[in-house]
Known about the structure:
By secondary structure, the chain is an alpha/beta fold. It contains 15 helices and 5 strands. The protein has helices spanning about 10-15, 20, 60-70, 80-85, 110-120, 125-130, 135-145, 165-175, 180-190, 190-195, 195-210, 215-220, 225-240, 240-250, 255-265; strands at about 35, 50-55, 75-80, 95-100, 155. Strands 1-2-5-3-4 form a 5-stranded mixed sheet. The longest helix has 15 residues, at about 195-210.
Amino acid sequence: xxxxxxxxxxxxxxxxxxxxxxxxxxxxxxxxxxxxxxxxxxxxxxxxxxxxxxxxxxxxxxxxxxxxxxxxxxxxxxxxxxxxxxxxxxxxxxxxxxxxxxxxxxxxxxxxxxxxxxxxxxxxxxxxxxxxxxxxxxxxxxxxxxxxxxxxxxxxxxxxxxxxxxxxxxxxxxxxxxxxxxxxxxxxxxxxxxxxxxxxxxxxxxxxxxxxxxxxxxxxxxxxxxxxxxxxxxxxxxxxxxxxxxxxxxxxxxxxxxxxxxxxx
Length: 265
């Protein structure tokens, strides 16, 4: 269990309390965790050991690959852009079913642009409120989830394992009927799991932009309001989240029933 010396919302702290079971300790990756264990609105629970999320996995060690084998992770979805992925190729098990889903990622700003974007404000709100790439980015994941063999697991990731990966997890948990507060707790927990990485990133931005670290942190930290932007934008364009699932992800009522059968108990 993580021992935290910072103030956290109650729901997020409750999510972190099971981190001994949730977090997969890797030598070459951070924010690698199981998406299972969450209670759904209909009294069930998301199964453990089937769906995993992570940050960059280009530096996995041989020991880490053994962990992937033990957890039967032979299917991996990568949400990074083409150049982003080429610069740090995933280190995975041989014969892994690997799929790159770069929609919208190649247009993400680089470090040199971040300072100006932070100064302009609301960068993350705009990113989460943009529905343009959601279907192309996330449909492959949901289609894989539908047909994943019972004895296999799946992992998806981006670079930080927080924004693109966080949205994927929010949509997956929503499809299973997990309460919004729980979805938001899983989402904001990345602020804690990524503390060391974030600190280095914030310090680098501080040096390159001249802004103070607190301003940068506030601009980039994950907040429930970002998921509100995501779901509100979806509702604004499609009427309901369910319409979005059916039109863009190929997940209608029948497919959602399959997901609940496979990933809740």
